[in-house]
Amino acid sequence: MSYATEHLRRKYIPMSETAFYILLSLADEPRHGYGIIKYVERLTAGRLTLGSGTVYGTVTKMTRDQLLVVYAGGGRRKTYEITPAGAEILRLETERLKELYTNAAAHQEGSP
Amino acid sequence: MTETTFRPFWSFHIQKTEAWLASKAEEGWRLTGFQPKTSRFTFTRAQPEHATFAVSFDRSRNHPLPHALEEDGWHVASRRRKWAVYANEKPSRDVKTTIVRDGLESRNSRIAAVWWIYFLFIVLSLSMQAAIFLPLYLSDAPVTVTRVESPLWIVTYTALFLQILVTVLGVYQLLALKRESARLFQQKLPAEDTDGAGVKKHRMKPGWMYAPDKLEAWLERQENDGWHLESVRPGGIRFRFTDRRPAERYAYEVLFEGRADAGAHQFHEEAGWEKVYASGMVWQKWSIWRKACRAGEPKPVMHDTAEDRSRAAMRVTRTYTILFLPIVMLFALNYFSFILPNALEEGSASLSGLEWFNVTVYPFVMIFFFSSVVRVWLYYFRERKPKDSSFT
Q: For A8, which of A4, A41, B14, B360 could close a Cys bridge (C-beta 3.0–4.6 Å)?
């Protein structure tokens, strides 16, 4: 069953690095805003420190498009959870990135 | 057995409505439906039970239920178009989660904005009438007012009655929304202006909203020079600094939001930003933020992509262009089509006081608004350029 509409696919794929990492950070468990920023920082070994304005803008857009849902968790902190549509968009983007990587690696191996 | 209760203005008192629904549940009335527009709530007889209620407003009409809320015992008790009532039968102390009210906050600020526009219209309309009639009242010449009898006066009186009614409704709703906002979206306000020890200095900075990046750079320079921003007076023009040496490094960000967004502010605070100023406007919300950082570290930013920065800048540019350009055009049309040709034709010696006022003040007003539009566009083009992550 497909959750992501054609409109969502066209809108989000290919995806920006920020949007990809936000979805990836929520793939396993819900997180609050600062949790997302810290997780991405850890995952990229400090290369990427997302700005709170950028993250807030992206999660708000994704919530509006139903890729994420939001609730108030412990300490009334806004916590974001990925929806089936969000998980599907993440899977499609991951497949696209895998193809990119495979082709790039094959090209590199084949080149003199 | 069912019961339908009429509860006017329930959506302006969400917390009271939620408490009322809880008390109905304890009395053994279970909510089975509601009509938001006609303010009617339908209940059926059930076993008395304890329940926590949360009313949500969702423009998309989806009313999603995150897994975490479902696992915590929440369910949608009733939904109707953009409104939904979520319920949880667990004891209150065991409920760890709740819904987010961004949709409700957005709806409330939109209603408040519509009322402010209405009141602005009333004030403008009264001012125009006063401007027309005041010279008559003030003049020494006798003024005769004749009231022509007509059955159509009923239309005037009905319109007056309706306008008073609408105005009273507007005042009531604005006050209710203000109280509601304080209760639902408790915003942490920046620290009050305190008279702490140390050397102080005050600086005026009017019109910074047309070049917010320059205000950021100016505040960072002040911090670098050992002047720590202590407070910003209401209105956002007067800045108070205190001498703090050795100087600490601070990155400043000036944010513009179309409306108050408590969610965004909470987000920035969690990420370590400190709010030093928030404007009191219902719409066109400005806020000033800062974050301490060590020397040698990259400067912290709220918007880390160029696309994001230029989008944020465009919001400012678009708002002030839409606000000010029509004013410039109206003034220019009036000035160059009527006031100036008339003044040139009459000659300076024969101009009345009012005509002199118009001839001299109009250009200043036009220059002020036009230069503000130019400044916001220059700001936008500056923000589009790639930025260096170091301090200026």
A: A4
